[in-house]
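Ticket #4471: structure output looks truncated?

Reporter: J.K.
Steps to reproduce: submitted the chain below (451 residues) through the standard prediction queue, then opened the result file.
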Amino acid sequence: MSLKQASVLVIDDDTDVLTAVRLLLKTEAKEVVTEKNPENLRAILARQNFDLILLDMNFNSSINTGNEGLFWLNKTREFKSGAAVIMITAYGHIDLAVRCLKEGAADFVVKPWHNEVLINVLKEALAKRAKTKSPQVVAAKNPVVGSELIGESAIMQDIFYKIEKIAPTDANILILGENGTGKDLIAKAIHQQSLRAAKPYVKVDVGALSENLFESELFGHKKGAFTDAREDREGRFEAANTGTLFLDEIGNIALHQQAKLLSVLQNRQVTRLGSNQPVAVDIRLICATNVPLMELANESRFRRDLMYRINTVEITVPPLYKRGTDILLLAKYFGKVYSKKYLKPEPEFDTKATEKLLQYGFPGNVRELQYTMERAVIMADDHVLQAKDLIFSPIEQAPEMSEPDELRLSSIEKNTILRVIEKNSGNITKAAKELGITRTALYRRLSKYDI
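Returned output as attached by the reporter:
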């Protein structure tokens, strides 16, 4: 790609710099978009793809560490931008340049620059991008090969990393998360990447088992053990022998059922109802629940010894609204699936539809998005989906939308900052680290919300 065909985004808090770059690139590039506030980066990248991003290193004249620029450099990857990023600053320290390149920047230029130099830097960055852009780069975003998991956000990349680390082991896994977040897909991906992948994978919704069925379903029974036991039957533990057993909604089982389950896990053997002969089982155990971990830690609800038994490693699956532009990835995926199912053109999204998806809270998480896209594909009059085509589920108790989305999101951010600062006893450095932002960015938010 030549610079003449490229779209360029310039982010700098200096209006003169934005004007100068816009005028310089007016005849050199296909399109130039300028922005003073890096906080708008997510919305801009959600609306449009760019080939190049010129990103300032400092957005506060009194602080010249470059940390803000590095923070937003990392955010470009989280926001699913494939653009080559060139960092710009008035402070040309060598160590800062090296840090930028290590963090993934394509190049580094110092203000003020010669116009010819900047043009050459942009051309070279485009050339490097063309060489490195390949299917392998996309595949690296989701290393959990063969699974249905989709996500490029930082929080999902962390989950993929954990899956890769723990899958080859026999460690017991506890998956936490709200309903509809895809806990079952995580469990299946762990099995598929494990050494037991060719062996049985057995899923049981233990929370839905009645008192009478719990032992029979899990441990099996002998003929005549109870009224309807007309033949011998192996339980789910035996069915999963040498493979993986996934116990879903384990947080909903009663305490006396927990005691029976604990005994089996400790001894690694089951005894069928109506029999006195124990049967050894070799399983990899994965459990999941929508009950928060702190509630599970309450012994009046869940046995602590069982908690330690099932929770060698835990994975917390985030609600959909925390996954950023993964929402768009998933929407496109479901759109493709249902367009094939209903023999319709693969849908695209106009700007308003994209904004509506990103601004909605999705209380039903990925499951709600899936049903939303299925309805949209069926009911839309055109393959380009508009905001009116996206009808969210009335079943879910979505947050009140009476106030503007911007204010609603600001309220969430403010409350989160207050909680984290209180948790860290007012220590701004620790609070900023936990929030994943720089101290400068945190101070800016404290001023913004009058905290």
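Triage note (M.O.): checked the attachment and the full token line is present. The chain has a mean pLDDT of 84.
Status: closed, working as intended.
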